[in-house]
Amino acid sequence: MIPIATRPPLPALLALLGALLPGPGGAQTSVHPKEAIIPQGGSVWVNCSASCDQHADLGLETHLTKKQVASGFNWVTYELSGIEEDSSSICFANCRSVQTEASMSLTVYSFPEHVELQPLPHWQPVGENLTLHCQVKGGRPRAHLSVMLLRGEELLTQQPAVGEPAEVMTTVLAGRDDHGTDFFCRTELNLQSQGLGLFQNSSVPRQLRTFVLPKVHPRLTAPRIMEVGTQWLVNCTLDGLFPASEAQVLLALEDQRLEPTVEYSKDSLWATAWVKVTPEEKGIQHLTCAVILGNQTQWTQEKVTIYSFPAPNLTLSESEVPEGTMVSVECKAHAGAVVTLSGASAGTPAPSAQFMLNASAEDNERTFLCSAALEVAGKVLHKNKTQTLLVLYGPRLDERDCPGNWTWEEDSQQTLKCQAWGNPVPKLDCHRKVDGALLPIGDLRRVMRNMSGTYICKATSRLGVVKREVVVNVIHLQNNIVTTVIILVAVLVISSIVGIAAYLYNRQRKIREYKLQKAQAAAAMKLNTPP
Ligand SMILES: *[C@@H]1O[C@H](CO)[C@@H](O)[C@H](O)[C@H]1NC(C)=O
Ligand SMILES: *[C@@H]1O[C@H](CO)[C@@H](O)[C@H](O)[C@H]1NC(C)=O
Ligand SMILES: *[C@@H]1O[C@H](CO)[C@@H](O)[C@H](O)[C@H]1NC(C)=O
Ligand SMILES: *[C@@H]1O[C@H](CO)[C@@H](O)[C@H](O)[C@H]1NC(C)=O
Ligand SMILES: *[C@@H]1O[C@H](CO)[C@@H](O)[C@H](O)[C@H]1NC(C)=O
Ligand SMILES: *[C@@H]1O[C@H](CO)[C@@H](O)[C@H](O)[C@H]1NC(C)=O
Ligand SMILES: *[C@@H]1O[C@H](CO)[C@@H](O)[C@H](O)[C@H]1NC(C)=O
Ligand SMILES: *[C@@H]1O[C@H](CO)[C@@H](O)[C@H](O)[C@H]1NC(C)=O
Ligand SMILES: *[C@@H]1O[C@H](CO)[C@@H](O)[C@H](O)[C@H]1NC(C)=O
Ligand SMILES: *[C@@H]1O[C@H](CO)[C@@H](O)[C@H](O)[C@H]1NC(C)=O
Fold first, then answer.
1. Is the distance from the beta carbon of residue 312 to the nearest atom of ligand 8 less than 6 Å?
2. Does the beta carbon of 407 lie inside 6 Å of ligand 9?
3. I need a labelling partner for 226 at 20 to 30 A (CA). Which of 151, 297, 324, 514 fits?
4. Counting atoms of ligand 6 from 1, which one is nearest the CA of 326?
5. Do 163 and 189 share a domain, yes or no?
6. Does 11 share its domain with 103?
7. Residue 446: which domain range?
8. Which Gene3D superfamilies does this chain map to (predicted)?
9. Nearest Cα to 406, choosing from 451, 436, 438?
10. Whole-model pTM above 0.90?
11. Which residue owns the Cα nearest ligand 10 atom 13?
């Protein structure tokens, strides 16, 4: 073996000479295979042979580990092993003291040991460019190694692997369809021309999540003012979301988080929450609705004025008084509100109003209204309170509601109206002066002759008794009817008599005329009859 490291140019020179000047008797050295591709760390058998008419000295010059595994006349087979790098080796033969050579080359191949697609953004906005990076370590021969980036099974780019580690990148426009799609990186070692085939290695896939959060504020609907102690429903909606179901909503009154009920539709979201207003929150508060999707947020804030407005206190010095008593009516509102009190003279608006009243019968069941007004965020609110005064009076019986003179026709239907007034309501009864017979008040009755007379009506309550005389006259129509009937009968009788008399007279006259005619006829016959 010629030490190749110390005299590198010599084998090349000899090879050239050998090729140009074939040895005596056509002596020639050959090697098989001339080229080989082997996996890294693998081994190969190399057969060196010489065409020489006598025994030739054969050898293989290599820096690889070699072992003679077989030999014959003018051939030797070596095993080369532990091949980590591409290399070349030279077979040489000395035939008749002439050396000829043949070289062979070895190419090592290996699969990439590391193929990785760099992490994708947690969320990718739709319509923005996404850059994919792939890193490949190892793998050769590089001339046969390429790197592909894929979206699902769609090839985005295929580039040769350059550098160590090799980096390949490409940009894609993220779309809605990319939501949930796997991206990955794949290497391809193409050794088909070497008769070995196509070797692929893939990275672990990475799933992309894309989203759309429109650049508009959510629509927040809430009352502008809220009263302490009440609760309100507030709504917050946003349309055009993708994927809507992944969106989150945050509803808060100042820093108090509300618990919204969220409903999702195809591309929108609708959140509703109850706001319970406590006295501690009095004043101007901010209601916020935020919609969070991907790594973005859209929010809206509304001002809400929280107020406290108790109804005014309306008090009567006494709620039930005898007639003629002075009663005070007073209305007081809470600070900030002004009151209007019915019955009081209208003055400048003030937080309280009052007046005195000499209670009369007309004031019984009179209702007083106190209306308090408060301005909250430019809006005037009213709260009302009413009180009813009861005045004790009576009993009373007067001409208007209990007439003292009733005149009715007998047998007509009449309602006896007599109303006594008072608080408490008096008991009323009417008795006939002469016999104490009771007059039925308030019923629909047939008037009878025996109802007439003078009655004493008496209204009684615990406040006293009042009496009133009521005269009932019943008109008897019977006499008139008899007269009419008699006249009618008389007329009938007279007309009948006259009629009959006229008839009889007429009939007598006709009979007489007939008899006369008969006599005249008989006389004429006697004259005409021949004797
Ligand atoms: C080596 O080559 C020679 C000449 O071509 C041949 O005769 C011999 O059989 C070969 N040896 C092996 C082991 O292939
Ligand atoms: C959201 O993510 C994208 C892509 O990763 C990034 O460009 C953007 O700055 C992020 N936006 C926010 C508000 O964090
Ligand atoms: C995305 O990248 C392409 C080229 O790679 C460019 O033409 C396009 O304007 C980019 N789009 C956006 C939204 O940045
Ligand atoms: C690469 O692919 C080959 C076959 O295609 C396989 O034998 C090898 O184990 C793969 N390498 C890795 C790191 O997955
Ligand atoms: C919120 O939605 C509910 C149900 O549709 C509705 O009754 C309520 O009035 C809405 N609230 C506001 C403040 O719009
Ligand atoms: C209240 O009115 C009654 C009757 O009108 C009168 O007699 C009485 O004196 C009045 N009382 C007062 C305190 O004015
Ligand atoms: C109204 O009455 C209630 C209870 O009687 C009392 O607590 C409140 O302070 C009163 N309001 C005013 C304005 O006087
Ligand atoms: C209270 O009274 C005022 C004035 O009379 C009236 O305008 C308002 O409608 C009333 N409010 C209520 C709730 O009854
Ligand atoms: C009652 O009325 C009748 C007729 O309507 C009248 O003739 C009579 O004088 C009146 N009596 C009294 C007491 O008013
Ligand atoms: C009138 O007469 C009827 C019977 O005809 C009798 O039932 C009724 O009680 C009498 N009424 C009075 C007030 O006398």
1. no
2. yes
3. 297
4. 13
5. yes
6. yes
7. 399-477
8. Immunoglobulins (2.60.40.10)
9. 451
10. no
11. 451
